[in-house]
Design brief:
Blueprint: H1 3-11, H2 28-36, E1 61-63, E2 77-81, E3 85-89, E4 95-99, E5 113-116, H3 122-128, H4 144-153, E6 158-160, H5 170-178, H6 180-189, H7 191-215, E7 220-224, E8 228-229, E9 232-233, H8 237-257, E10 262-266, H9 275-280, E11 285-287, H10 297-304, E12 309-314, H11 316-319, H12 323-334, E13 343-347, H13 357-371
Parallel strand pairs: 1-6, 7-10, 10-11, 11-12, 12-13
Antiparallel strand pairs: 2-3, 3-4, 4-5, 8-9
Helix pairs in contact: 5-6, 7-8, 12-13
Length: 374
Amino acid sequence: MTEKERYVNTMSFGKFDRIPNMEICLWGQTRERWLAEGMPENTNTAFIEHGEPYFGLEGYESVHIDAIAPYPLMESRTIEETGEYLVFVDGMGRTRRARKSGTVGGTRMSMDTYLDFPVKDMKSFREFRKGYEGPLEERYPKNWPKVREAALKTDRPLTLMNPLNGTFGYYSMLRNWMGTEGLSYLFYDDPALIRECLEFLTDFVLRLLEKAVSEITFDFYYVHEDMSYKNGPLVSPALFKSLFLPQYRRFVGFLKSHGVKIVLVDTDGNHDVLTPLFLEAGVDGFGPIERAADMDPVVIRKKYGKSVCMAGGIDKREIAKGRAAIEREVNKIIVPLIDQGGFIPMIDHSIPPDISLKDFQYYLELKEKAIRKG
């Protein structure tokens, strides 16, 4: 069975020889620690992208199309820089304050503080949207014929864009434009603006992806949202049903009508109250199933059965605690679900630096035994 067949059959509850052995990626700080602990320098630690033989991990292939940034990019500039912080405007017109200390390989130890955003009202949106109304060719790889040829030949699961770098999603795009706080107010202060933004986004992404999905058959797509926190989503079910659901139906319907087999939503936090609405829109499953937000793959399976597939669900906090905790986690989460399909166990997000190389390898050893039944 090819990696492509194994992935698709697992996530669609079909027949498979075993579930895929996949993990997401490392923080830059984790990579630095593991190199000091003996990991070879040339190890690919963006595991999910292409896989990594050193750890025995499988991966996917992706076709990179830029659906996120305005074209041309807005002027990036530094506003202030100290020994500790950098305040700058990025290519999307957002003003950010970044902590410089502890940065490794582009990975900061804390998220940037977002200070200002380009879209605040209908007038600023109609100006900003011009960055998404231009020619589409610049958003595709310049060597498109070679990219298409490679995509058609691959035996790995194939996706649009790259989930590691953020794919197109609705809440995530609005947050990029308006910020979490600004968006939260505008849901109530100007729902007409939000509705126009969402309709515009669907028109844009369907127009953008038509060429790709007409020329290549993709196995899966991750809708990047990150629209929840520990206690629940940042959008109420009522708002989601009124504003987001119609656009999700259009987008998911478009993808599936062009042969995309599995549509997943990537959101941190606890999204359980929105799960029925996502399913109504045609979504098949979710990741990373964040355990710190009380998302449990075993509980989700009992509640939703085979209507939900999952990727993730392994508590990173437990993997950092050593062998006994790792054994409990594997027995609690992986063992009960491996025969059912619809589940690819992975650490529930990028792997932080409190997990040692030795503990990660022990976790992989136990997972491999569970996958291959000893």
